[in-house]
Automatic annotation (TrEMBL):
InterPro entries: 6-hairpin_glycosidase_sf (IPR008928), 6hp_glycosidase-like_sf (IPR012341), AGE/CE (IPR010819). It holds the Pfam family GlcNAc_2-epim. The lineage of its organism: Bacteria, Pseudomonadati, Pseudomonadota, Betaproteobacteria, Burkholderiales. Coiled coil: none annotated. One of its GO terms (molecular function) is isomerase activity. This is N-acylglucosamine 2-epimerase. GO terms for biological process: carbohydrate metabolic process. Belongs to the N-acylglucosamine 2-epimerase family. Keywords: Isomerase. It comes from the Bacteria.
Length: 369
């Protein structure tokens, strides 16, 4: 959290959002959002009732995100829930080839055994946060083992990372993509807080240089979703904000790299073209000319916008952004996951993965009491 000269209205917005997270959202996922028999969070809850939707699968990434949330939350109950989630992550999702299953079915039997970089990144992040809270040595060991597997298996010859590999690690299934590597950046920044800071800093600098070389779109300076030159490539404003928050918070690690210079320009472009400040917020995606590809307003993009405004210290924009967010996306029983441009709900469930975005957003808010 950061200290700031806040207005009474901004202070009230931050307090209210934190109170909602602590009193509504966290209890929801410790209660009816948690399958006590399997020891796993349900994938999604009905937004109107808070009851779990019939599960068809459980993902390791979703379990890891919840582990991160409860490792960061205060209170004994949150810590005990983090213990349960860590035990389930280890018991249910370990792959027989090493690494992690992507998903299991409704009875917790292996469903998709793809070695997925996004999943592995969140395991590193979650184990780091859980170790910092619990001091459980197994979490640190698992974090280091997973990071070692990522470097040995996913890394390409040009310093990027395959997005997915076959279960036996031998066959690339998806090429490098922005989003998994962004979350790998987040994960390695967290890992460096508990082990091998110099090694992780080296990995991070190589990754950032690769992203700048292969993903930055010259005219906008935005980081594209796919490799530059990919037909139908798109730019997601939310990811520009997310990258800025990560890099800004680790200035020493990224010092002197081109990405440090391009990201403020990317955020400026994203704010100009991808944020509806008079409506329900940040658009999902644009093409490289700035035309709207997907005008859906997803909750994660709103939280990343708010987080970036806090990081930048833009208090007037943060105050109005929080007011809009609370009006459009927060309701008494939880949150709205997706809205259209008119502010109408277009997705009527609450996924288990979204509290992670709310948690990282709140962690960046001004430190008000």
């Amino acid at each position: 959290m950061i200290a700031a000269q806040t207005t009474p209205i901004l202070t009230e917005h931050v307090r209210a959002l934190r109170a909602h997270f602590d009193s509504v959202i966290l209890p929801l996922w410790m209660g009816q959002g948690f399958n006590g028999v399997l020891g796993l969070p349900y994938e999604s809850l009905d937004a109107a009732t808070g009851k779990p939707l019939p599960p068809s699968r459980y993902r390791a990434m979703a379990c890891a995100r919840q582990l991160y949330v409860f490792s960061e939350a205060s209170g004994a109950a949150a810590g005990q829930h983090a213990d349960r989630l860590f035990a389930s992550l280890c018991r249910v999702f370990r792959n027989e080839h090493g690494g992690w299953l992507y998903s299991v079915d409704a009875e917790a039997r292996p469903l998709d055994d793809t070695q997925d970089l996004y999943t592995h990144a969140f395991v590193v992040l979650a184990c780091s946060a859980y170790f910092q809270r619990s001091r459980n040595a197994d979490a640190r060991k698992l974090m280091l083992a997973t990071a070692s597997a990522i470097e040995a298996r996913f890394k390409t010859n040009d310093g990027l990372y395959h997005a997915a590999l076959s279960a036996d690690w031998l066959t690339p299934l998806r090429p490098p993509a922005q989003n998994p590597m962004m979350h790998l950046t987040e994960a390695y920044l967290a890992a460096a807080q508990v082990a091998e800071p110099a090694l992780f800093a080296q990995h991070l600098r190589t990754l950032a240089q690769g992203v700048n070389q292969f993903f930055v779109h010259g005219p906008t300076q935005c980081i594209s979703e796919a490799l530059q030159g990919t037909v139908g490539n798109r730019l997601e404003p939310g990811h520009q904000f997310e990258w800025l928050s990560l890099v800004h918070g680790a200035a020493q690690v990224f010092e002197g790299l081109e990405l440090v210079e391009t990201l403020p320009r990317a955020v400026q472009w994203a704010r100009a073209h991808g944020v509806d400040v008079k409506g329900p917020g940040v658009l999902a995606s644009l093409d490289e000319s700035g035309a709207v590809v997907d005008g859906t307003r997803r909750i994660w993009a709103q939280t990343e916008y708010l987080r970036a405004l806090a990081v930048l210290g833009d208090w007037p924009a943060l105050e109005s952004g929080l007011a809009s967010f609370r009006t459009h996306f927060v309701h008494d029983g939880g949150w709205h996951e997706c809205l259209n441009g008119q502010g109408e709900v277009v997705r009527a469930d609450m996924p288990s993965t979204s509290p992670y975005h709310l948690a990282t957003c709140l962690a960046a808010m001004p430190n008000v009491v």
